Amino acid sequence: MLASVRARIIPTRKASAGWTAATKPLRGQAVLPLSVFASFYHKPARSEAFKRLSAEDVNYFKTILPSETILATPAVGGTADPAELDAFNADWLNKYRGNSQIVLRPKSTEQVAAILKYCSDNRVAVVPQGGNTGLVGGSVPVHDEVVLSLRNMSKVRSYDEISGILVCDAGCVLEELENYVAERGHVMPLDLGAKGSCHIGGNVATNAGGIKLLRYGSLHGSVLGLEVVLPDGTVLDNLSTLRKDNTGYDLKQLFIGSEGTLGVITGVSVVTPRRSEAVNVAVLGVPDYSSVQRAFKLTRQRCGEVLSAYEFWDASSMSAVLKHQDLRNPLSSEYPFYVLIETSGSNKDHDDEKLGGLLEELMEEGVVKDGALAQDDSQIARMWSMREGIPESLSKTGATYKYDISIPIPVLYDIVGDIAQRLEKANLYKPGSTSYPVRLVCGYGHIGDGNLHLNVVAERFEDKVTKIFEPYVYEWVSSHRGSISAEHGVGLMKRDYLGYSKSPSMIEYMKRIKDLFDPNHILNPYKVV
Ligand code: FAD
Ligand code: MLT
Ligand code: ZN
């Protein structure tokens, strides 16, 4: 049965043969000159409670850190070319930019503790930084905060092949961990397009979701323990490898998703599931959004026990990918929506039959118009590159405004058309035309998790564009009792909009927790609360 389905849904081998091999997800963006950063985002004023760094501070850091781990410009008594700090001062989207004159790259938890103790005692503001792939302006300084980069802490501390429990430094790159556990028959419980650069510590700090959340759940479940350095230098050693531990408050949960505002994560203990023997990936062409939902319902009904991902993107996202990535559409024509289904199980024949049956049913019911089923690992990788290549393709198209929202699936995509219309009405956008300030409005995301990424790509970041959808998007999300941040976090971008998703009393308790852990507010100031 499967063969006939394949024959019908795979357009041609030729189309696939033209695809290039999946490329490693990139650090990506060139760092733009300062002049490009318009004043469109309103920086909070620098707090004068924070000390301005001097050579005296840098001299102290030299007593606790090896000299090669300090990058300081002449402005604070160092010798580094200020351009060397650009990559630490600018975020991945080239949207936010700070003016830090010093980056510290400690090699041990003790060094992190010594740095933080000094900074807390002397009211020196600090921004913890992992792979700097965050999308809400949380990972870069707002003003002259010290950048505390974890990239020199990248060792696996232990791995238990029976339980699959990995304990590692926070600065390990996600993809390197993925390769490490893959050699031992396991997978990391999270995967995202930024895996080639992001750190596990950054993933935990943002509670990153990604494409496997549907299968393995959030990091609140997979992370078993954390080692965290508090702003006063205390090391909270909660690097447990236990699956079960009900001894009072589960403090680690507070740091998962705290975005560097409560402590610096230096070690992570995480459970890694077994790698599935049989993986299938299909890309489908879908005529409308209601069919995307119907297909999801049927996929869960027919293949729920092996379903490992259900992603979708619209035609505008696809056009950006096809323009900027060396990939071809695996389908024979264009469709309003595309869905990527992945199954991962232990019995290939069983999974093939199940997925084959599902695809046949979807085609027969007209829910899906066309489809391609990957025939080997390289086709699987290319199909995933198509989905994971969207953020980078949009950034290559222009300045990307990104909204990451959670709302009930039936109305999730409405906001994309709504925003496009508002922009058209304001004479800022015309679909298909390049003579307007806005070039593209698109939506994609983890529909299985009820998470849409609404993106507006413009010539540049500027107020006249921003004001069309801010705070409108947040009001709209709030009216559906959704979340203004499904997975990217709050950072600087959404700090002033937190009230759209959290009640005043919840925000008050968040502030009290912040005061408790960081009474001098030196950690990642101006962000989150
Ligand atoms: P950074 O960007 O360096 O930092 C992010 C935040 O965490 C900052 O507030 C920072 O201060 C804090 N932080 C970093 N390290 C530490 C630490 N050790 N201790 C305390 N605080 C720390 N996110 C998703 O959820 N799902 C996706 O599918 C997804 N896909 C992405 C695809 C691309 C191409 C890109 C560029 C980003 C994507 N993201 C996604 C955004 C995501 O939040 C980050 O990629 C990732 O989790 C951040 O890790 P990082 O090491 O780069 O952290
Ligand atoms: C994704 O799902 O691709 C990421 O969250 C990044 C993005 O939203 O662009
Ligand atoms: Zn995402």
From TrEMBL:
PROSITE patterns in UniProt: FAD_PCMH
Top-level taxon in the UniProt lineage: Eukaryota
Name recorded for this polypeptide: D-lactate ferricytochrome c oxidoreductase
Domain FAD-binding PCMH-type stretches: 96-275
UniProt keywords, alphabetically: FAD, Flavoprotein, Oxidoreductase
Co-factor(s): FAD
Source organism per UniProt: Coemansia umbellata
Its EC number(s): 1.1.99.40
